[in-house]
Amino acid sequence: MPENKTRQNRHASVKQSILKTAMALIIDKGIAKLSLREIARKAGYSPASLYEYFEGKDEIIAQLSAEAFDRLSIYLSQPPTNIPPDKRLIEIGMAYVKFARENPEHYDLVFNRLPSKRSTASEEINAASPYIIVRQAVVEAIESGSIVMSRGYDLEAITYSLWSLAHGMATLQNTHLSQFEADFDKVNRSAFETFIKGLGT
Amino acid sequence: MPENKTRQNRHASVKQSILKTAMALIIDKGIAKLSLREIARKAGYSPASLYEYFEGKDEIIAQLSAEAFDRLSIYLSQPPTNIPPDKRLIEIGMAYVKFARENPEHYDLVFNRLPSKRSTASEEINAASPYIIVRQAVVEAIESGSIVMSRGYDLEAITYSLWSLAHGMATLQNTHLSQFEADFDKVNRSAFETFIKGLGT
DNA sequence: GATAAAATCCGAACACTGTTCGGAAAAGTG
DNA sequence: CACTTTTCCGAACAGTGTTCGGATTTTATC
Questions:
Q1: CATH 3.10.20.580 holds for B1-54
Q2: Phi and psi (nearest 5°) for A150?
Q3: Nearest residue to nucleotide C21 when comparing alpha carbons to its C1'?
Q4: Residues B98/B49, Cβ–Cβ less than 8 Å
Q5: Each residue of B128-138: pLDDT tens digit?
Q6: Which A positions 86-115 lie with beta carbon below 8 A of chain B?
Q7: Range B63-199 has CATH code 1.10.357.10
Q8: Quick one: average pLDDT of A171-187?
Q9: In this complex, which of B32, B164, B195 lies closest to A169 when CB atoms are compared?
């Protein structure tokens, strides 16, 4: 009864290879022109066969979105923990933007192709993971005294603000400012520093 | 030879009415499901006829995007000029987010449905208009001494940073945080104040 | 007002798309 | 071996954006 492993493994690996083909197509043709039928062609299957592995095109995109999410989490985990909390906060922000610039398609998948159907509670928690990472860094920065909370501007609010700043920079650089040849890294760092400075006493 | 006016007027007004029906469809069915054929049905034309007025579906969306852009400019122009420059800067940021929340479809059109083909130089200038508005407010804030530039963090960089912050807040509220019931206005204002504070001496 | 010209409109067709369904082939189980 | 489950696909359906030829209507010119 090797069904337990072999069968499920096969199913899972085929699923993964289809996702891989789909992601490759997104990267070189753009997600707007992604077609189920072309995925099937490149993967060596008939269009109907893909429905054996996914509920439809939307679920394929949702899966890719989830994968992209994990990739983002990896980026955000890179900054070492043995640096001053306020510095680390900046590095996390920089990592966020770096992810967006180095993986524009993944970034788009994470934030602009979220499944239209309300995600379940558990997915929400998972989806909040990057938020949790930033939040934890803010907590440490507060404990170290680098930044301070004030009334009406609490932990969640600060986390949200930093996330917004990073998200805005990343989004603008990948869309409206994509053809600008500025040294965004330097400016971004200054922006984070300015905000952190404003959070100080 | 009344062709000059009548003819062109008619053409322009039909064009406008098609855009209007298209926008209505976007608002109540979502842009993802917007279909050229349905626009034609609702507008009382055959699908082929729309090509007398637009190059295709993409140009219709591009036109709507341009209209949405104008609407954003109006929002950004609302804050009065007879208030302290640093306060005004915050009000402009708040107006940016307000536009996004009150007109989510328009906001999406402006920032996530930008025409894939490189826009021309003149369109670029027009597209930069909100940026110009924010920039001008920053200039006045600098002149008043409310905020200061430092080396490597100049006018453009500050403008870009404020834009990013507002853009991030707007985008997140319209997507990932759309189901959260927080008092975003208050938090947003605190975030802007914090950043402006960081920009001070 | 008749005539030529230009603008407007649409039916039909083409090449796509996502999805469903029935059944054939293959693989695993007893 | 038979039996069940999984896998796969051809065919079809409804829908899409777009093109083209020609008919109809509106405008300009004589």
A1: no
A2: -125, 170
A3: A48
A4: no
A5: 578 999 999 99
A6: 111-112, 114
A7: yes
A8: 93
A9: B164
